[in-house]
Amino acid sequence: MATTTGHHSPAPGAAPYPRMILAQTALETRMLLRHGEQLLLTVIIPTLLLVLFSTVDLIDTGPGERVDFLTPGVLALAVLSTAFTGQAIATGYERRYGVLKRLGVSPLPRWALLLGKTGAVLVTLVLQTVLLVAVALALGWSPRGNPLAVVGLMLLGTAALSGLGLLMAGTLRAEATLAAANLLFVLLVLFGGVVVPLEEYPGALRTVLELLPVPALAEGLREVLREGGWPALRDVAVLAGWSAAGLGLAARFFRWE
Amino acid sequence: MRSAGDQPAVEAVGLVKRYGERIAVDGLDLTVPAHSVTAVLGPNGAGKTTTIEACEGYRRVDAGRLRVLGLDPAVDGEKLRSRIGVMLQEGGVYPGARAGEMLRHMASLYAHPLDVDALGERLGLGSCGRTPYRRLSGGQRQRLALAMAVVGRPELVFLDEPTAGLDPQARQAAWELVRELRADGVTVVLSTHLMDEAEELADRVAILDGGRVIADGTPAELCRGGAGDVLRFAGRPGLDLASLRAALPADSEVSEPTPGSYRITGDVGPRLLATVTAWCAQHGVLADRITTRRHTLEDVFLELTGRELR
């Protein structure tokens, strides 16, 4: 190795914030999409559920086309898979492997790291939504309602589920986060009002389920996309409440290593 | 305000850091001169990592005064972190990221980074740029971490055990990089428990134990005293010890612990060795199995703490 003096002569300085945030978003997005397991959760399972339950009469989804019932639920599931499950698992392992610590001593401020993570979740979510909407339209879906209400609900759902995902990743061990995030994903596929209408469940259970973020998001989206109306105030309030609680607790208890 | 030239890179006075009941750093004083290599030496739990993390602004100390590049890390952490480079002892890379991808990302966080490809090539990472981090060998991971520490062209670099687990060749390459950094005016603080690493690289050594600096100075200053210096050789039994003794400098001692095996203590250096072999030549003695052992930082540490270093 030849010695080249002057090579390392100091020229310190941070990159401009926009460049750092863009770079962080791009890297986080690649990390989120690179895992096979992750694609199973974000792409394959939601698509399969949509295709399977739309074309085969397995569950009574109430009056109207089955795809009109299923698509809003599957969109809610997409938010769950990326904002909660995917983000929690990835962040849990980043914490475990010292990635957060390493970035914590780089010029990237913590808020910019979180912006990068949020950016990655949103990019992934856009890709999922485009794919699922295309599949649903091919299956004969006829969406109604105000698109802005849909976007607003999905963003609120993203905030609620991101907060909970980060809370989990920042407080539990990586393995515990992995197990719990996957378990909750499966439970919410079954009980989250995604493929099975909440009306199918007994009253007490239903009351509890309606207070959870995924059922509230699914119901809210259904109210807009299937009925052409506006989401119920209660569903919006549930999502806002979880957002405040999740993000607030994550900000308070998140540990970087 | 003093100019950047004479300002120490790190000034710590009376640092204290507690984790619950345990005191990790207990009134630590440390000064790192600018444009030098300082080795922070000590056994596990001596407070090396905590001290370095405080300097990086990653951890807040409970008491004491700390200035790094003239800044208070607890207040001006963000400003400070754009001027320093950090190598963690392990990890720090997205498990799914490729080596080149991670280095490129780190480069994108700085205003004037080094050329990533050239840096990777120099550190022998050229062939594994597309390899995912989890498939890199231990040595490749270390070199990646080192590259990540210097890619932003920092003024001050913190290396935590930079050559732990490296093979001899990779270790030489890492040492070479540290020398280049120093030659280019970068201040280097490295923690290590390898004595030869400290002796080889450091202008100054600070020995930590129990959360304090128990000795510091240049390696030569710390090793002065020479109580541990020994020269041994074998020859025919029954040599004239008084005659040999007379040929040597005044502070030397000569003995024959077992027949035919000779032991000389004193200021063991090139001159002493030349004198001994010259005396042997004069007396027709073939000095065999000549070994010298100089007082090392390891001996200093042992004397100061009564313990081995690891």
TrEMBL record, chain A:
Keyword terms, alphabetized: Antibiotic resistance, Cell membrane, Membrane, Transmembrane, Transmembrane helix, Transport
Span of domain ABC transmembrane type-2: 33-257
GO terms of molecular function: ABC-type transporter activity
UniProt membrane topology term: Multi-pass membrane protein
GO biological process: response to antibiotic
UniProt xrefs under InterPro entries: ABC2_TM, ABC2_TM_bact-type, ABC_2_transport, Nod_factor_ABC_transporter
Membrane-traversing stretches: 39-59, 71-93, 114-141, 147-169, 176-196, 236-254
Keyword Transferase: no
Subcellular location: Cell membrane; Membrane
GO CC list: ATP-binding cassette (ABC) transporter complex
Family: Belongs to the ABC-2 integral membrane protein family.
Protein name stated in the entry: Transport permease protein
Native organism: Streptomyces sedi
Organism lineage string: Bacteria, Bacillati, Actinomycetota, Actinomycetes, Kitasatosporales
Automatic annotation (TrEMBL), chain B:
GO molecular function, one term: ABC-type xenobiotic transporter activity
Family annotation (InterPro entries): AAA+_ATPase, ABC_transporter-like_ATP-bd, ABC_transporter-like_CS, ABC_transporter_ATP-binding, P-loop_NTPase
Main location: membrane
Alphabetical list of SUPFAM superfamilies matching this protein: P-loop containing nucleoside triphosphate hydrolases
Assigned keywords, A-Z: Antibiotic resistance, ATP-binding, Cell membrane, Membrane, Nucleotide-binding, Translocase, Transport
Membrane-protein topology: Peripheral membrane protein
Gene3D superfamilies (alphabetical): P-loop containing nucleotide triphosphate hydrolases
One GO biological process term: response to antibiotic
Enzyme class at the top of the EC tree: translocase
Enzyme Commission designation: 7.6.2.2
Gene Ontology CC: plasma membrane
Stated family: Belongs to the ABC transporter superfamily. Drug exporter-1 (DrugE1) (TC 3.A.1.105) family.
Protein name in UniProt: ABC-type xenobiotic transporter
Source organism of the structure: Streptomyces sedi
Lineage: Bacteria, Bacillati, Actinomycetota, Actinomycetes, Kitasatosporales
